[in-house]
Structures are given as structure tokens and as C-alpha cells.
Design goal:
The chain is built from 15 helices and eight strands. By secondary structure, the protein is α/β, with parallel strands linked by helices. The longest helix is centred in the N-terminal third of the chain and has 19 residues. GO terms for molecular function: nucleic acid binding.
Length: about 350
């Protein structure tokens, strides 16, 4: 039942009232004046409901609604998992359409020209689905999007979007001079990459990219090719894995405690070009470093050597022994200077 604001005691609490007025407020303590009267003497509600009972019967009326959607791309592009099969089926469909228009029927195996026309038809459908706005801008002689401006794209006689450049006077084939431009995320692009990868004996990413660049230009080709090769099951199964060889036990000189350089390994590194300064001139000469490594503590001693002769090594060894003491064992890679020094001892 609807209660007017003047007869509703809840308004005293919701709207607020001073405590001095609330003490002697009759509406808050006793309610409205008609509240203690019989029910039939209560005022009638002013809220009028809609007379739904007297309304007409609701009936369900069937309606036919027609919606229009843009035609989807040729679903043949996503039906097949082989680039050769997709080209062959497309060529057969185009032959059927051509036979329906003329009385001269084409029969027999597919010709190279039919396969080439089917290839251009497929690539054109891919371009219209990925570069529709860019193709429209180029036809209106307006600048294309930023992602394609550096490629200088243009439309050829067949309406195919190709990459520009400065190779039009070269002896390369037309497809290599101006490759067909393709997007990076499309099922047909994946088929083309897989076909090139498999027909060239599962070529690596760099070789596959170089082979594809002879006919098509794929945006972000490096990442697309690496992704497709990573998903190749054959390459994954035959990927060589290097096995770490089993290492032998360490020699006693590596595990026996001793003073530094008692057991030493030696070798050369270089050459390095250094300046030899005189009073009147500056010369650039080659120098080598003779490295002495302690087999126990891994301490390093470096001597500068002018050449790789035996005398040069003996001079470096003499300086090393003067600083570090005699060695009980001296290990090398048996170079000619080391062997010559061993014979002179």
C-alpha cells in the first residue's frame, strides 16, 4: 500500500529531524491519525496500477528477419594443408568457370599457365583480405599505411600488390625484381613457407628466407619462418644434440696440494700490435704473451715475448723461474718452440 510522505513516520528517520522536535512528534510515536481506525476507514491509495486484466490477449506473431553480411573469403584457402594441392584445386575451379563461359572446353592435365594463374588468384585473395585499405589508397594515388611505405608498393597489371625498388633494369626474373607482398599472419603464408622448407630438404631459416625472397615478400619474414620451422615435426625429431663426453680423472698434479707454480702449464696467445717508441720514430711491432698457469691454484704469470722461437721461450722461462721458482712439472701443447726448449735442457 502506498503511504503519502505526510503520513509516513519513516521519513522522520530518513530525512532527519532535531531531537527537540522528535520528543513530542506524534507521527513518530503514534503513527498517522487514521492508523487506529478500522481498515475500511483508511484512505484509498493514490497509486493506480495498469489494468492488465482488461487488456487484450498477447499473441506470438512469427516474423521473418533478413540480415546481410559481407561475403566471406574463399574458404578453399583454409581447407587444405598443402600449397601444391591448394594451387591444383584452385586451377581446376578456374578451369571449370572458364569452361562454363565458353563452348570450347579445356581438358587434360593442368598447364603451367593455369597453375600460375591460380597462384596469382590465391595471392590476390590473401592481399585483399590483409591490405584492403592499402590497395584502395594506391588505386586512388594516396599514400599507403606506414608499415608499407618503406617498401614502395605498387599494383601490377593483374592488380597484384608488389614491392617496389630499383631492380627493374636487372636481369632477374620479374618475380625477383618485384616480389609479391604478403602479410605475416595468414594460413596461405604458412603453407608457402612450409612448402619451400620441405621442397629444399628442410632448409634452415636463412636459406628458406633467401629462397622465398625470390618470389614473395613476407612481412616479418624472419619470425614467421622461424615459427614454422620450429613446428616442423621432421626437423624436431632429427635435430642433432651434442653429447657431452665423459671426462677422465684429473691428474695428480691437479689434485695434490703444493706451492704455487710447482706444477705449471704454459702456452702462447696473440699476436698483439704494440708501439716501439724511439727518440725519432714510432714503429708498430708484433708481440706475443707467454702464459704460465699454476695447475693447483690457477694463478697466472704473463711474460711478453717478441717472437715464437725457442730462444724467445727460454728467455721467458728464465724470467718466470727467477720470479716464481723452479717447476717440478711443466706442461705444454708440444709446440715446436716447446719441443726445442725441452731438447736444450
Amino acid at each position: 500500500r502506498h503511504i503519502a510522505s505526510g503520513d509516513n513516520p519513516a521519513d522522520c528517520a530518513s530525512r532527519g529531524i532535531p531531537a527537540s522536535q522528535l520528543v513530542n512528534h506524534p507521527l513518530w510515536w503514534t503513527g498517522p491519525s487514521w492508523f487506529h481506525l478500522p481498515h475500511h476507514n483508511w484512505p484509498a491509495s493514490q497509486f493506480v496500477l495498469a489494468e492488465l486484466l482488461s487488456s487484450e490477449e498477447f499473441k506470438k506473431i512469427p516474423l521473418v528477419v533478413l540480415t546481410t553480411t559481407p561475403p566471406p573469403d574463399w574458404d578453399l584457402l583454409s581447407r587444405y594443408s598443402s600449397w601444391d594441392k591448394l594451387q591444383r584445386i584452385t586451377a581446376l575451379v578456374l578451369r571449370f568457370i572458364s569452361n562454363c563461359k565458353t563452348t570450347k572446353r579445356i581438358k587434360g592435365p593442368l598447364s603451367p599457365s593455369e597453375t600460375s594463374s591460380a597462384r596469382l588468384k590465391i595471392l590476390g585473395l590473401v592481399q585483399r583480405s590483409a591490405f584492403a585499405e592499402d590497395i584502395s589508397s594506391i588505386r586512388k594515388q594516396h599514400p599507403c599505411s606506414t608499415r608499407l611505405q618503406r617498401l614502395k608498393p605498387f599494383l601490377d597489371a593483374d592488380g597484384c600488390l608488389r614491392v617496389g625498388g630499383r631492380l627493374s633494369r636487372s636481369s632477374l626474373p620479374p618475380d625477383s625484381q618485384h616480389p609479391v607482398l604478403l602479410p605475416k599472419n595468414h594460413p596461405v603464408v604458412d603453407l608457402i613457407v612450409d612448402h619451400c622448407h620441405k621442397t629444399h630438404l628442410h632448409a634452415g631459416p636463412q636459406l628458406t628466407q633467401a629462397l622465398l625472397a625470390q618470389s614473395v615478400w613476407i612481412l616479418c619474414a624472419r619470425s614467421v619462418i622461424r615459427t614454422r620451422i620450429f613446428k616442423c615435426v621432421t626437423c624436431f625429431r632429427n635435430k642433432p644434440r651434442n653429447r657431452a663426453p665423459l671426462m677422465g680423472d684429473l691428474p695428480p698434479s691437479r689434485v695434490t696440494p703444493a706451492r704455487p707454480f710447482l706444477a705449471t702449464g704454459t702456452d702462447y696467445c696473440g699476436p698483439f700490435t704494440v708501439k716501439s717508441v724511439n727518440l725519432r720514430s714510432v714503429k708498430h711491432v708484433k708481440m706475443y704473451l707467454c702464459i704460465f698457469v699454476c695447475m693447483v691454484t690457477k694463478a697466472v704469470h704473463i711474460e711478453v715475448v717478441t717472437d715464437l722461437t725457442t730462444d724467445g721461450f727460454l728467455a721467458a722461462l728464465t724470467r718466470f723461474v727467477s720470479r716464481r721458482g723452479l717447476c717440478a712439472d711443466l706442461y705444454s701443447d708440444c709446440g715446436t718452440n716447446f719441443v726445442g726448449a725441452a731438447e736444450r735442457r
